[in-house]
């Protein structure tokens, strides 16, 4: 199939790169002409195990051979029960609702938070989010997203959201009143520019929520499932949320999302409050179970920490080498950002031409979210390409 056919039949929701990928192997994507691209995008932090991973492939083949991929949430299935038990243990949470994406997981969290508030007091239904946050494209999630560019032309948006400054606790405290039911925050802002939270900021949010009977929601759609160097970023900070959302790498590349709860959030939803036709289907749950198995092995997350530190150091080397083009390096584990003084798209396109896939974050950051199985040799190869691109741009 041709790119022109894609332009004809696909709606214009993406500014797509003119390439058609047909297969993958390890850390590489391969296009229809056989060209290989070193992948530091990973489907935007989705393909945690890279491509053609034997264990993951075997898990999916086992389910396919059984002939049951979906049976409706009117009934139990053993893969979903196993996934629920394993995932909640991995995340230090207690219960889970399965869905299909990060936006869906966040919608579930927002609904649960508002029901929680309304059960406690009249009009306790306001939600605080962060400036420069990103929580998804559905109506509740996009309204929780603290970036005006995502709101443009979609009025009227749902009411009851306010936005404080990320990493500024006093800014959030000023928004708190008796009508606020929840605070939603990313432990590391992704689309906002790869900005990790300060530990004391998240600790302060936890205290605010405890003091004012609000729910603390952590959006770990991008940072969850090992990306931070721990199974979940909240474990790096030692701050436990009431609600935790995740997706992206959750099922190793199969569409899946999850909203996990603990404590006072566990019993808010009752049958009929929320649902997902495909959430927790047998195929997705099998993918989740394989990911949980990998992440339960400390050597896997140790590798992420090691490679994350190695990548961070190499990026700092580039920032030192090209001080007029690079101003900082930010990140944690294998979600890293190189802050640029030039439009990131320029670097993204030049890297693509040299066989490296990277992407931007925010207005000035080059984002690196490779598969978690990346090795030192692949990091070195990626850095060499970025170095060559920056050298060309510096002239």
Could you walk me through the main structural features you see in this protein, from its secondary elements to its overall organization?
The longest helix has 24 residues, at 298-321. The strands form 4 sheets. This protein has a 7-stranded mixed beta sheet with strand order 4-12-11-10-7-5-6, with helices on both faces. A 4-stranded mixed beta sheet has the order 1-2-3-15. It has a 4-stranded antiparallel beta sheet with strand order 13-14-17-16, with helices on one face. The protein is an alpha/beta fold. The chain has helices at 3-9, 42-45, 54-66, 78-91, 102-120, 139-144, 169-173, 199-211, 233-237, 282-295, 298-321, 344-353, 376-394; strands at residues 21-25, 28-31, 36-39, 95-99, 126-130, 161-164, 180-185, 188-189, 195-196, 215-219, 243-246, 257-261, 326-332, 335-340, 356-357, 359-361, 365-368. It is built from 13 helices and 17 strands.
Unreliable stretches (pLDDT < 50, length at least 5) are: none
Largest sheet: 7 strands, mixed
- Structural class, by secondary structure, is alpha/beta
Share of residues in helices: 25-40%
Rg (CA only): 21 Å
Strand content: 15-25%
**Distance N terminus to C terminus?**
39 Å
The structural domain count equals 2
- Give me the oligomer status: single chain
How many beta strands in the DSSP annotation?
A: 17
Indicate the CATH topology of the largest domain.
Aspartate Aminotransferase, domain 2
């Amino acid at each position: 199939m041709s790119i022109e056919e894609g332009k004809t039949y696909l709606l214009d929701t993406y500014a797509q790169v003119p390439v058609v990928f047909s297969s993958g192997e390890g850390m590489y994507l391969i296009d229809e002409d056989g060209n290989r691209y070193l992948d530091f995008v990973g489907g935007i932090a989705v393909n945690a195990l890279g491509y053609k991973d034997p264990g993951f492939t075997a898990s999916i083949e086992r389910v396919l051979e059984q002939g049951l991929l979906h049976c409706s949430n009117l009934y139990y299935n053993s893969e979903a029960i196993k996934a629920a038990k394993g995932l909640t243990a991995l995340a230090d949470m207690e219960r889970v609702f399965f869905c299909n994406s990060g936006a869906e997981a966040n919608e579930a969290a927002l609904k649960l938070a508002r029901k929680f508030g309304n059960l406690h007091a009249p009009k306790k239904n306001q939600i605080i989010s962060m400036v420069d946050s990103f929580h998804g494209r559905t109506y509740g999630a996009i309204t929780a997203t603290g970036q005006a560019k995502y709101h443009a032309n979609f009025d009227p948006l749902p009411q009851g959201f306010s936005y404080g400054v990320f990493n500024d606790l006093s800014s959030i405290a000023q928004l708190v009143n008796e009508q606020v039911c929840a605070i939603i925050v990313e432990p590391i802002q992704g689309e906002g520019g790869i900005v990790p939270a300060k530990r004391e900021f998240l600790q302060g949010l936890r205290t605010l929520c405890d003091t004012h009977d609000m729910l603390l929601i952590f959006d770990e759609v991008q940072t969850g499932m090992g990306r931070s160097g721990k199974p979940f970023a909240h474990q790096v900070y030692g701050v436990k949320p009431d609600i935790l959302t995740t997706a992206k790498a959750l099922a190793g590349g199969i569409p899946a999302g999850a909203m996990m709860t603990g404590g006072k959030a566990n019993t808010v939803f009752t049958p009929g409050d929320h649902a997902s036709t495909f959430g927790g289907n047998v195929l997705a749950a099998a993918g989740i179970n394989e990911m949980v198995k990998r992440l339960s092995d400390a050597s896997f997350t140790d590798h992420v920490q090691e490679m994350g530190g190695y990548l961070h150091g190499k990026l700092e080397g580039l920032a030192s080498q090209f001080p007029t083009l690079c101003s900082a390096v930010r990140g944690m584990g294998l979600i890293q950002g190189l802050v640029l003084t030039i439009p990131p798209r320029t670097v993204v396109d030049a890297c693509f031409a040299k066989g490296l896939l990277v992407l931007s974050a925010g207005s000035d950051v080059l984002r690196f979210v490779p598969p978690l199985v990346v090795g030192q040799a692949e990091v070195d190869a990626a850095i060499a390409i970025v170095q060559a691109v920056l050298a060309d741009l510096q002239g």
